Amino acid sequence: MRRALLASLVALVALSCGYQPVYGGQADPFHVVLARTTMADGMLAAEVVSGAREALAKEGALAGGDGYPRIEVEVLRQDESSEGIAAPSDGGLGASANFGPRARATLVGLVARAYVVRTPGGPAERDTGDTRAMDMVASDVTGGVTDPRADSFHHEDASRLVARRLGERLAMRILGVPTATDEAMGREP
């Protein structure tokens, strides 16, 4: 009898291990608004806000509208850098076909922050700090020639996905759920 009780107690303790939200359970849901953006592309700012709303909805912590308490999102900047620079071969067309070095891919990054405001004019709480999401977009090369139209579509899609993932990451940090980072060794800003 004692062994069965002890075994069930050990099993209960073992099952209760795991990640717990830093701030505990939410009493009331959050509204989400865009407080500020420093970028000309409003589509990416809207995607960040949509990503935050989607993550809050999955967690049961989303309220509709622009009321309080709310999460205010600031979209700060978009970063891009070339990856895998290479001088393409001329494909036997001579020196006139060599247009110089090209990137084999582009690293697209977006930086934003979010915080909770409980009342109009109230102080910012649970500030996430500058948070980044990144993705790599390969150049679309057909027959040794870069296709700028396809590159443009791939770049736009990747930027939107990065923005949405960043919004989700901001919302989860506000809720106190541990989140992974896109910045591996050698990729720190």
Task: List strands and helices in order, with pairings.
Layout: H1 2-15, E1 31-37, H2 42-58, E2 70-86, E3 102-117, E4 124-125, E5 131-138, E6 141-142, E7 145-146, H3 148-175
Parallel strand pairs: 1-2
Antiparallel strand pairs: 2-3, 3-4, 3-5, 6-7
Question: What would you note in describing this structure?
Answer:
The chain has 189 residues and is α+β, with helices and mostly antiparallel strands. It has a single domain, classed as Double Stranded RNA Binding Domain, CATH 3.30.160. It is built from 3 helices and 7 strands; from the N terminus they run H-E-H-E-E-E-E-E-E-H. It has helices spanning 2-15, 42-58, 148-175, and strands at residues 31-37, 70-86, 102-117, 124-125, 131-138, 141-142, 145-146. The longest helix has 28 residues, at 148-175.
CATH class: Alpha Beta
Number of domains: 1
Unreliable spans: 92-97
CATH superfamily: Lipoprotein like domain
CATH topology: Double Stranded RNA Binding Domain
Strand content: 25-35%
Total helical segments? 3
Calculate Rg over CA atoms. 23 Å
Task: Report the major sheet.
Answer: 5 strands, mixed
What is the percent of helical residues?
25-40%
Task: Give a quick summary of the entry.
This protein is an alpha+beta fold.
